Predict the structure.
Amino acid sequence: QVQLVESGGGLVQAGGSLRLSCAASGRTVDTYNMGWIRQAPGKERELVAAIDWIARHRYFADSVKGRFTISREDTKNALYLQMHSLKPEDTATYYCAAGRGSTNKIEGYNYWGQGTQVTVSS
């Protein structure tokens, strides 16, 4: 089992930046693809960013390309999401996820954290 705990969410003004962190425990995640999935009230879940287990392939949703970056630090069993130029539409609960399925699809992730709230004010 993999346990995932997110941190770093909060309230930020539009145009600001936040860095989300995810700490994994239970087992090492160096053989897992990792991703960030968000969900806003009344909206579908969206895979925002993902990185494969060898950090060779990265995926970004069109809505965040050029603004978000994803990185992993397997020596710390950690995943990060750096968010810049935040917009009100980025407001959502952000979940860290791990899995061995497709990197680019939500269905590829079977371990999820509890989520951290990001709120972007206009």
Notes: The mean pLDDT is 97. The first strand starts at residue 3 and ends at 7.
